[in-house]
Amino acid sequence: MRLGRKVAIAVAVLAVAGAAAGWVLSAPVRLDAATLAALGPGDAARGKRIFFAGGCASCHATPKAEGDDRFRLGGGVELKTAFGTFVAPNISQDEKDGIGTWSVEDLANAMMAGVSPSGEHFYPAFPYTSYARMKPSDVGDLYAFLKTLPAVAGKAADHQLAFPFSVRRGIGLWKRLYLDPQPVVDFPTGAPDLVLAGRYLAEGPGHCGECHTPRDFAGGAKKDQWLAGAVAAEGGGVVPNITPGPGGIGDWSADDIANYLETGFTPEFDTVGGAMVDVQKNMAELTADDRAAIAAYLKAVPGHPNGYPPRKPATK
């Protein structure tokens, strides 16, 4: 009996110690003082470029919004995934339902660390794993631009998630595995400035890898198959391989890629479709130099075979 009691006590102690360690390791971590100091005063004109590069309207404006309605960021877009349904929140300047009371530091912590002003983890359906690679000054510029946009009343619906995904604290452990501010593709010293500029736009604000890279069982990007294409997050089809590898866009020239981002036409004169429609609309708002940089980056990334299973032939 004494031995059994000792074992039970030891197990209980280990369980408590493990729970305590998990609680500490899963705590939200905000940005450090040096990063916050680098946010700068912000410039709205420059921030408009970051707004489009970051695809803010694609999730936070009304679906299929056109013209000035793309700047009404009331949220509500649903992303239905294997983990549950995520709903894009209101990020307009409404002080009650949006982020009108947020400081620039609040926005930076949300975008680059995935932490809310109240100290909770955001779910990575918000692509902060990419935004973490952004320059703080670009976040400061984006904040200045967002302050010029209208307030939109109405709180977006809550996420619809089952246990254990409904427990936000666990995201802290997930971040330790998948949140990394370093570039994904490590180009050799002397890589062209155009390629490096494209890497920043594509891996950071443009968050191309969030859709075009396959994910593991925990929802983390498989960086060894970066941009190789993936099953769509909502399970309805696939997102294409955009590397130079088999099944990718290796036969597209840099000009072909840049033209596609500007016009939506492929080299075969097919047109952009699906979720990429909104992305291309955003890319068309960038400068020709920005699109050329993204194209140069995509021509320079390592090639991979398709990152999604081949489609099964139709049965008779």
Portion of residues in beta strands equals: under 5%
Radius of gyration over C-alpha positions, nearest whole angstrom: 21 Å
Going by helix content, strand content and strand pairing, the class is mainly alpha
Uncertain stretches: none
Average pLDDT for all residues: 90
- Coarse shape: globular
End-to-end distance, in Å?
67 Å
**DSSP helix fraction:** 25-40%
**Helix-strand pattern:** HHHHEEHHHEHHHEEHHH
Instruction: Tell me the strand order in the biggest sheet.
Output: 1-2-3
Q: Let me know the largest β-sheet.
A: 3 strands, antiparallel
- Number of helical segments? 13
Number of strands: 5
Structure notes:
The chain has helices spanning 2-25, 33-37, 44-53, 56-60, 104-113, 128-131, 136-146, 171-178, 193-203, 209-212, 254-263, 276-283, 288-300, and strands spanning 78-81, 84-87, 160-161, 230-231, 238-239. By secondary structure, it is mainly alpha-helical. Strands 1-2-3 form a three-stranded antiparallel beta sheet, with no helix packed on it. A two-stranded antiparallel sheet has the order 4-5. It is globular and about 65 Å long. The protein starts with a helix and ends in a 16-residue tail after the last helix.
Set out the fold topology.
Layout: H1 2-25, H2 33-37, H3 44-53, H4 56-60, E1 78-81, E2 84-87, H5 104-113, H6 128-131, H7 136-146, E3 160-161, H8 171-178, H9 193-203, H10 209-212, E4 230-231, E5 238-239, H11 254-263, H12 276-283, H13 288-300
